[in-house]
Each structure stands twice: as C-alpha cells, then as structure tokens.
Design brief:
It is a multi-pass membrane protein. The chain is of the alpha+beta class and 412 residues long. The protein is built from 13 helices and 14 strands. The chain is elongated and about 105 Å long.
C-alpha cells in the first residue's frame, strides 16, 4: 500500500472504532491545549505588559544629579554629591535635544498637601507636581475632561491646575471641576483639566492624587530648598534608545560643563530594564508551561500506545489475511504508524484551536487588546503530535509487523 492508501486505511480503522478513537484524541488534545494554551497566554501577557511598560516609559530614560537623591556610603567613603540640576540647565538640555526625542521637565513640589474648595477639603496626602508641555505625554497621563496648559500659561506661570480623579471626587462629587477654583499651599488655582483615573501606583495613588501646575508656577511656590528638576526623555522607536541615551549624555555634560576626563555629574537611568526583566521572567514561565504540557502529553502518549496495543490484538486475524495476500512487514508497520499519527493529528488540531482560544482568553482577561495567533506554537504543537504518534505507535506497529501470518490466521 502506498502513502495515501495508508491514510485511507487509518481513517477506516478510526471509523470502525470511533468512540475509542475520540477518547484517545481527546487525551492528546488536552495535552496540546495545555502546551499551546500556556505558551500563547504567556506571549499574550508579555505583549500586553510590553505595551504597558512602553506607555509607562520603557522607551525612555531619566537624568538626575549624581548622588543628589541617594547620599550613600560606598566602602566607608561618602559618595560625592553634585549640585542639583537647575531650571536653566534643564531648559538648555531640552532645547539642544530638539526633535531627537521628547523631553519632559518636572519638579516635585510636595507630597503632603491639603487641597480645598469652598467648605470641602481633601486628606493631606495630595501631591503637587510642576510640569512642562510634555509632562502628560511623557508620564502617559490622559485627560478625561478640560484641556492642557496653554503656551501663555506655561510661559507666564499662571495659577492654573489639572487635578486627579480622587481630588475631583472629594471636592466636586456632583459637578465638573473644570472652571472651579481650588486652594493649596496658600494660593488659588483655576482648574482647567481633569486626569483619567489611573488607580494606585506602588501605594502612591498614581495620577488620582496629583495636582499638576505649570513649571514656572511651581518654581514660584513657597519651599524650604531649591527644586530638583527631573528630566525624562522618551523616543517612540525603542531601537533609537541607545543612540538617544548617548546623545543625551554628551548634551548634558556640555550643559553641566563637566570637565574632559571627569566623571558625569549626573546619572542616566534607563527604564527599559523593565522589559529585560520581563523577558527573563517570561522565559522561566515558558519553560514551566512547556514542562506542564510535556507531562500531559506523556500521559497521552502512554494512553495512545495502550490503545494501539489493543488494536493490534483485536486485528491479529486481519493482519494475517493482509500478509497472506502479499503485504510486507514494512507495509503493516507503516499502516499502524500512520493510524497513530492520524489520531494524534486529529487530537492535536482540536488542542491547537482550544489552546489558542485559551491563550487569547487570558489576554482578554488581563486587559490586552487584539487577537494573537502564535504560529510558532501551533507548528510546534503539530510537530509534537507527529512525534507522539511515532513514539506511541512504533512498538505496536513493530509487534504487528512481526506477527506470523499462519499464527495470525488461526487467531480467534
């Protein structure tokens, strides 16, 4: 019998033992579903988290004065503390970077502020941040209502503010905060915008507890010490991040007038390390998922081998008749191997469909968008099906091929 005839014979045998074949294929499909589903879910979650990290600044870096925020001792020696980055230096850096990247300048004013409006007031844990025109974009804060600061407001240092969701709920529970006045740190501000709800971020409330004011306005607020300006630079192209980091380092050295041969007076902290940690974590989880799927498939292969052994025993007389009519041992072996492979592929096809659906279901559950078709894991799953069919069917097929035709014809 040639190849196509073996496939037809496999389907005839499957049809004659339909219930047993369906149960066996279901065992295989569960193993493939576990394998493909887990790997697809990991890829889906990684894709969703990668987009989240990108929106949180995975394609960006921050520049701060070296040792200014972390005055630690190393080897018993006090680390040198360099001067804070001034407003003029931050502006010069932003102007010189130009269109090479998106630069956002901000300054933390206070993290324990009480905001008032009429007779209402918030808890004294609101944070006030001063930012420029790129602050919302760099921080991935979205406006729910109102507008951003105008160029005139940014340049003049107007008393305008954008508030978070928690501040709106506390002060204006039944009306829009846009156009209303709030009081904080001894000054009155006109609310021109409201931020979308972001939820808690590391216990800090995220954007919900934030009052954003223009950068120059923040510089005029009462304080006990000079402001430390934070510079964050982002690029839409992650492949451009290394080049932009080098450019930013050279630019800041010139702005800070660091002498040739002297160490940088500032630190550049890239946040793409989040993506690297995600890759490492997803790789370990992927190995664990593969092991779970492999163990499940091992049980399926044992069940399939048992079914094929029973099939050989039941069809002993049929094997004798085929050999008496001229079928060779090789043809008998191919027939049973093909039957095992077909059963595995039928179960594997169902398992792949269920696995892709399960993986994308997890992606939908975690809030990811789109539909992921993992062609690599689909191909791997089908190849594993063929391998399981060969491994499970080889011994029963070899046993069938070695049967003596005379003894087989006598079998009842």
């Amino acid at each position: 019998m040639h190849f196509l005839e073996n496939i037809k014979e496999a389907f005839r045998s499957i049809q004659s033992n339909l219930l047993r074949t369906v149960l066996t294929a279901l065992i295989v499909s569960i193993g493939i579903m576990a394998l493909v589903g887990i790997l697809t879910a990991i890829d889906a979650m990684k894709f969703s988290l990668s987009q989240t990290f990108a929106s949180l600044g995975a394609n960006s870096f921050e520049i701060s004065a070296r040792g200014y925020n972390n005055r630690s001792r190393r080897g018993g020696v006090q680390e040198k503390v360099y001067p804070a980055i001034t407003y003029l230096q931050a502006r010069q850096y932003k102007q010189q970077i130009g269109d090479e990247g998106r630069v956002g300048i901000s300054a933390f004013i206070s993290g324990a502020v009480e905001v008032k409006a009429g007779s209402e007031k918030t808890n004294p844990n609101m944070r006030v941040v001063a930012g420029d025109d790129n602050y919302l974009l760099i921080q991935s804060f979205n406006l729910l209502a109102g507008r951003t600061f105008s160029a005139a407001e940014l340049e003049s240092g107007a008393n305008v503010a954008i508030v978070g969701q928690e501040i709106k709920d506390k002060l204006f529970p039944s009306q829009s905060p846009i156009g209303q006045y709030i009081y904080l740190m001894g000054r009155r501000f006109l609310v021109v915008g409201q931020l979308e709800k972001s939820g808690s971020t590391m216990g800090g409330g995220g954007a919900d507890r934030t009052v954003l004011i223009p950068l120059i306005t923040g510089n005029q607020m009462p304080r006990q010490q000079a402001l430390n300006y934070e510079i964050k630079t982002a690029t839409p192209d992650p492949n451009n991040l290394t080049y932009l980091t080098g450019l930013a380092t050279g630019t800041m050295r010139a702005v800070r007038r660091d002498a040739l041969g002297q160490p940088d007076s500032f630190e550049v902290e890239r946040s793409d390390s989040l993506a690297a940690k995600l890759d490492e974590l997803s790789g370990n989880i992927r190995i664990g998922g593969f092991l779970v799927g492999f163990i499940t498939l091992l049980g399926a292969s044992i069940a399939l081998m048992n079914i094929m052994m029973v099939s050989v025993t039941e069809r002993t007389r049929e094997i004798g008749i085929r050999k008496a009519l001229g079928a060779t041992s090789r043809q008998i072996r191919q027939q049973f191997l093909m039957e095992a492979i077909v059963i595995c592929l039928l179960g594997g096809a169902l398992g792949v469909l269920l696995g892709v659906a399960m993986g994308n279901g997890v992606m939908l559950f975690v809030g990811g968008g789109g539909f992921l078709v993992p062609w690599l894991w689909i191909t791997l799953g089908l190849l594993i099906c063929v391998s399981v069919g060969l491994a499970s069917g080889y011994y029963p097929a070899s046993k069938a091929a070695k049967l003596d035709p005379i003894e087989s014809l006598r079998y009842e």
